[in-house]
Amino acid sequence: MSTIRAADFIDSIATALQFISYYHPQDYIRALTAAYHAEAAPAARDAIAQILVNSRLCAEGQRPICQDTGAVVVFLSVGMNVRWDTALSVQELVDEGVRRAYRHPDNPLRASIVAPPLGARRNTGDNTPAVVHVALVPGETIVVRLAAKGGGSENKAKFATLNPSDSLVEWVLATVPTLGAGWCPPGMLGIGIGGSAEKAMLLAKEALLAPIDLHDLKARGATDFIEELRLELHDKINALGIGAQGLGGLTTVLDVKILTYPTHAASLPVALIPNCAATRHLEFTLDGSGAAQFVPPALEDWPRLVWDAAAGARRVNLDQLTRADLATWQPGERLLLTGNLLTGRDAAHSRLIELLNRGESLPDGVDLTNRFIYYVGPVDAVRNEIVGPAGPTTASRMDKFTAQLLRDTGLIGMIGKGERGQIALDAIKEYGAVSLIAVGGAAYLVAQAITAARIVAFADLGMEAMREFSVVDMPVMVAVNTQGASIHQLGPAQWRR
Questions:
Q1: Which of 108, 73, 103 is nearest to 91 (CA)?
Q2: 465 and 343 fall within a common domain
């Protein structure tokens, strides 16, 4: 009988979460590098290059791959002969590990968990509680599989109960385009089939913890029905032309993972959960001999890419822009932004709208006239950083606020990730504004362009507070021009053909 000490378990959880915050799994890097070399769409190829460059920077600097350092989910397989040397519950042990990881002084991770989920939604400050699943199994060890799942991809989870005679492939091919680009492709898709509603969702999440091996599967050929299904879905999803960041291209998914479970004769429960470009997961085993040890990957495992942000890009001075200047910008055009912009996410937008609806002035320092707003919640800075990793959040969450802000504040542009919905497209066209995108999954790379940062409003919101950033050559792309034309519609349509 092995004895698991509380300190070893907690240290292992904390170290693992730090490890995956800045080291991509090497199977992902290999698959993404292959996708980069195969990609024929210029915009998608540029986006993949930024993700790969960002990944290497994070490995070198040991800073988060993405500003959204995720909600922690843990799958524990606990041997029934294991003895716990602790008075704490399993949930409390996991949460203490999460707390230590996210408050690490050398690499603080962004706390994103709010409680309660309705009402006040106050940030818990340490990213707890984690979501913990426990299975009791034969043996004398504890197998820990954990992930830090970003909100952009988690929000795109789908579930359906199909008829047994329905086509799973048709449902997946109809569903994937509805996910948009907010889940930051290229990544993985986890699919759970069978069981009950909750079991199918759990299977889909668990499937994402497996390594990417689609290229190996293609090379050796399928040996069973599930492997045949994986190959079919991989090829047909990529044929949709969605591409990296939804810009149109050859690679939308790097792998499709499927887990199944017996189900009721009248049912076919199916769940689909995507994993983003900042895929973060790890597996380790505790046997009572001490805390888990993790071997850092070699920097030689990353490709040496020459990515020139200025090649073919238009340089823009944000402090001298007018609406007339925006009229020449076209969807898919690359820009380098220099000057000052404001930041704001969901909570800040809600407060701005409340002030406008009450006829009150916006806070001092929040003048949006002829300004851009960047949808971002950065990681806290350490050492000599101006700001921590500061990549974009999903733009479509701000769609419902867009028309009023464009009408009432003088705002002329927005920066986020992913597509805009129709209500935002209509508002952008009506008010002659633009919407830009930065690459999701390149947060540390984007942060290198930020030369100054200060909070200007709503400091109590933590990472969602409004800030003013000064930037130099911040790399972005025109997603929606002043006529409402969207790269997320034009790009995939072109590559689908």
A1: 73
A2: yes
Q: Where a domain ends, among 258, 277, 296? A: 277
pLDDT in tens, 274-329: 999 989 999 999 999 999 999 999 999 999 888 999 989 999 999 999 889 999 99
* 36 is a domain residue: no
Residue 497, pLDDT above cutoff 80? no
Residues 18 and 142 in one domain: yes
- Is the domain of 300 the same as that of 391? no
Q: Which tens digit of pLDDT belongs to each residue from 41-66?
A: 999 999 999 999 999 999 999 999 99
Question: How distant, in Å, are the alpha carbons of 102, 180, 338 from that of 317?
Answer: 36, 30, 5
The answer to the question of residue 395 being in a domain is: yes
Same domain, 166 and 127: no
The reply to whether 470 and 485 lie within a common domain is yes
Host domain of residue 173: 151-277
- Same domain assignment for residues 100 and 239: no
Question: For residue 306, what pLDDT is reported?
Answer: 84
Domain-located, residue 459: yes
Give me the CATH number covering residue 269.
Answer: 3.30.1330
Whole-number Å distance between alpha carbons of 450 and 423 = 31
| Cis before 116 (ω within 30) | yes
Task: Provide the terminal-to-terminal Cα distance of the chain, rounded to the nearest Å.
Answer: 61
Please indicate, yes or no, whether residues 379 and 401 belong to a single structural domain of this protein. Answer: yes
Query: What local confidence, expressed as pLDDT, does residue 247 receive?
Result: 96
Cα separation, 158 vs 169, in Å, equals: 14
Digit-coded pLDDT (tens) for 91-136:
999 999 999 999 999 999 999 999 999 999 999 999 999 999 999 9
In a domain, 33, yes or no: no
Question: What's the total number of domains in the chain?
Answer: 3
Q: What are phi and psi of 160, to 5 degrees?
A: -150, 150
What is the reported pLDDT for 1? 83
Could you tell me the CATH number of the domain that includes residue 140? 3.30.360
Rounded CA gap, 91 and 99, in Å? 12
Beta strands 187-195; 268-275: pairing state: antiparallel
Give the whole-angstrom CA distance, residue 491 versus residue 497.
Answer: 10
Give the pLDDT confidence score for residue 98 in this predicted structure: 98
> Does a cis peptide bond (omega within 30 degrees of 0) precede residue 475?
no
CA atoms within 13 A on the CB side of 229: 18
Same domain, 386 and 472: yes
Residue pair 82/4 in contact (Cβ under 8 Å)? The answer is yes
Q: How far is CA 86 from CA 6, 193, 411, 455, in A?
A: 6, 37, 55, 42
Sorted by sequence, the CB contacts under 8 Å of residue 405 that are 6+ apart come out as 349, 352, 353, 368, 373, 411
Amino acid letter, 192: G
